[in-house]
Amino acid sequence: MKTLPEPLAALPYLVKWSLLASLVALLAGSASALFLFSLDAATGYRLAHPAIVWLLPLAGFAVGWVYWRFGRAVEAGNNLLIDEIHDPATVVPLRMAPLVLAGTVISHLFGASVGREGTAVQMGGTLADQLSRLPRMGPVDRRILLMAGISAGFASVFGTPLAGAVFGLEVLVIGRMRYDAIFPCVAAAVLADQVGLAWGVHHTHYAIGTVPAVTAWGVAAIAVAGIVFGVAGMAFATATHRLSAAMKHWIGYPPLRPLIGGAVVAIAVWAIGTQRYVGLGIPVILEAFAHPVAVYDWLGKFAFTVVSLGTGFKGGEVTPLFYIGATLGNALAPLLHLPFAMMAGVGFVAVFAGAANTPLASTVMALELFGPAIGPYAALACVVAYLCSGHCGIYRAQRVAGRKIGIDKPT
């Protein structure tokens, strides 16, 4: 039997996944738009009524109780999606999407220090997985749908379609990427970003300023900074996991964990007299690109986020990691004799690269957010941070296909 030329043989695949990726993009992009609008409203209200932070313990208890009562099957969040891609078992319950949306908005409304990527990724993955119920969708198709949903959610919440596509391919396994899903992930990410823009979403613009030419000193300085960024990412992931484990060990009733964490955060906000380290922290990130900031800002955000996430508040880790990286890079700039805006941009992506074990997605994000001039510096910092962050990461379900340095390790 005569076989078709490869371009013609690929047409059914391209048509199928164009349609499915479009559906995933419409669902994930629309969900991210709703989430971002809700997040803006919640943040605006909190800033206008700063005393609301005193209700954070009660808000944490309420969210914890709802998840304990109705959301135990989806409490693992991003890790559940990654596990389902590795070992498909059952369709992710649809209730994950509204639970994480409401839980994250409440967390931000009352002043927890959490991010937004986790919410968008969980909504995108959950909604995409519902399409696996369509006829003639097998386990391989389901894996690809989940990956496309992750890419679409990440792309639409940050406005970085290429980074979102690479993130969905890279985040699953340390040391290996799955190219069987490259077209669905790229298509879903690009289209989801456009869906968000069509709904009127506006993403933050970061002014990087002038990036100096690549020099021997610049390369050496960025390599040193990359080590620091990698250690910071590793420390963040380790501290969050250890606090979470300790809370589960010592406090058996889940709703009490975020109640205690909320009380700690509220008292800390009162003690230091500022909400600088709660919420997303976008204004402080923008400050890091505009002028020197306090050398301890990164540590403040680090502590508030570890307490918030480690005690059970919902959201994500990535935007707080952007804050930690940007302010840490800003602090390192005078020591390395490099522009603080450029170092803020490099730290922004490199700490994320180290904590999430996604150096390629982080480098692509730098290009999309800051322009091509920062590419060589960002790529070097992200790779060094990735190598120096060990095999611990913010996503416990990540598997290790090969050690970053040394002998291969089986999956």
From TrEMBL:
Listed GO MF terms: chloride transmembrane transporter activity
- Pfam families registered for this protein in UniProt: Voltage_CLC (PF00654)
Membrane spanning residue stretches: 20-39, 51-68, 144-169, 181-202, 214-237, 258-278, 376-395
Q: Which SUPFAM superfamilies match?
A: Clc chloride channel
Name the source's superkingdom. Answer: Bacteria
Protein name as annotated: Voltage-gated chloride channel
Which Gene3D superfamilies does the UniProt entry name for this protein? Answer: Clc chloride channel
Q: Which UniProt keywords apply?
A: Membrane, Transmembrane, Transmembrane helix
Membrane topology recorded in Swiss-Prot or TrEMBL: Multi-pass membrane protein
* GO CC terms in record: membrane
**From which source organism is this entry?**
Pseudoduganella plicata
| Localization per Swiss-Prot or TrEMBL | Membrane
Q: What is its main location?
A: membrane
